[in-house]
Design a protein that fits this description.
Helix content is 67%, strand content 0%. It is mainly α.
């Protein structure tokens, strides 16, 4: 057995401490034979039965894809994050740590998508554990058909369904075509030039998803020269339509002074709009603003409240850090504030 296979076998053996020996052996034997498709086949059913160790193992397989799993499994950070997140929610001790390390390598929009994938997977009782389409408000039969192809991971068929509509000027089809080209999955080569082209056509028609994604690509310098001013332009157009992620992203631009003057008041404005739609990243951002007193009076209770809400919505937050600075009475108050905020659908959040 070569060094790469041995490393993978060791990683997987650590990942599956609670899986039955028979199933574990099947997976390991397949991995040792470089038959990673079979290894995946053995482990996926366990994950879909709710086995946290199997879920963590799937996260490892997808996250290591490009380095180790050269046959049968594509490296895929979104799917890896999804399985780590689910495994952590189901009690696996290490999965949350792996998820957080992987998150540091991902852009914010991908983290949100992965979190949405995890919610959909668990809410569907593990029936819908693939990529969530970014499709919005398309009602045609063509969309229904391509959505099924997309859910099944048949991106070639989805592309064939989308392209004629996109070429006819359908803004939703253009936006979704941009998404497929941006990430390039299963038979569709990644092509950031095509992604930019279709996102731009859709964004210029006012599609909020496309505007937000185009903002991301300028912000990251993905397929285009990095241009914060253009990123701000597209984020703003999307944010003003109520797009939660774009509002969060625009808040970030003001927070760091990228493409705009650094302005904590504007940061707070956009974070709040996004947070009040349930965006866990914006909620965490608000927690940090209150913890550090940026643009607001420093307030550990409100910081804890937003951190707590972010955690409840699947985000990573500094709740436990700020809790170390608070009395038990204050923590109790902040927890009650968080309950009231969520119960009121973000109408009563201690402002």
């Amino acid at each position: 057995m070569n060094r790469i296979t041995l490393t993978l076998a060791t990683v997987l053996s650590l990942a599956f401490t609670q899986v039955t020996a028979q199933d574990l052996n099947k997976g390991l034997e397949a991995a040792q034979a470089s038959d990673y498709a079979t290894a995946l086949k053995e482990l996926k059913p366990l994950a879909e039965q709710g086995n946290a160790s199997a879920q963590n193992g799937l996260g490892l397989m997808y996250s290591l894809g490009a380095s180790f799993l050269r046959k049968g499994v594509l490296q895929d950070n979104l799917t890896a994050h999804m399985w780590y997140n689910i495994s952590s929610a189901n009690g696996h001790e290490k999965a949350g740590e792996y998820r957080d390390k992987l998150e540091a390598l991902m852009i914010a929009s991908d983290v949100l998508k992965a979190m949405a994938m995890a919610r959909e997977c668990m809410n569907s009782n593990y029936k819908e554990c693939g990529y969530l389409p970014a499709f919005t408000q398309v009602t045609s039969q063509d969309f229904s058909e391509r959505s099924e192809a997309y859910k099944a991971g048949d991106y070639v068929t989805a592309l064939k369904e989308l392209k004629p509509l996109a070429e006819q000027g359908d803004a939703d089809a253009q936006s979704n075509l941009g998404f497929i080209y941006r990430y390039g999955k299963k038979g569709v080569l990644k092509n950031t030039t095509e992604a930019i082209k279709w996102y731009r056509l859709s964004a210029e028609q006012g599609d909020a998803d496309a505007q937000s994604n185009l903002g991301d690509m300028y912000n990251q310098g993905e397929g285009v020269l990095k241009d914060y001013a253009k990123a701000v332009k597209w984020y703003r157009l999307s944010a003003e339509q109520g797009h939660s992620y774009a509002q969060y992203s625009l808040g970030n631009m003001y927070n760091y002074g990228n493409g705009v003057l650094k302005d904590y008041i504007e940061t707070l404005k956009w974070y709040r709009l996004s947070a009040e739609q349930g965006n866990s990243l914006a909620q965490n951002g608000l927690g940090l603003m209150y913890e550090e007193g940026n643009g607001v009076l420093q307030d550990n209770l409100t910081a804890h409240m937003w951190y707590n809400i972010s955690s409840a919505n699947g985000g990573i937050s500094g709740r436990d850090w700020v809790a170390d600075l608070m009395t038990a009475t204050d923590i109790s108050k902040a927890t009650a504030m968080a309950r009231e905020c969520m119960k009121s659908n973000y109408k009563k959040c201690g402002y």
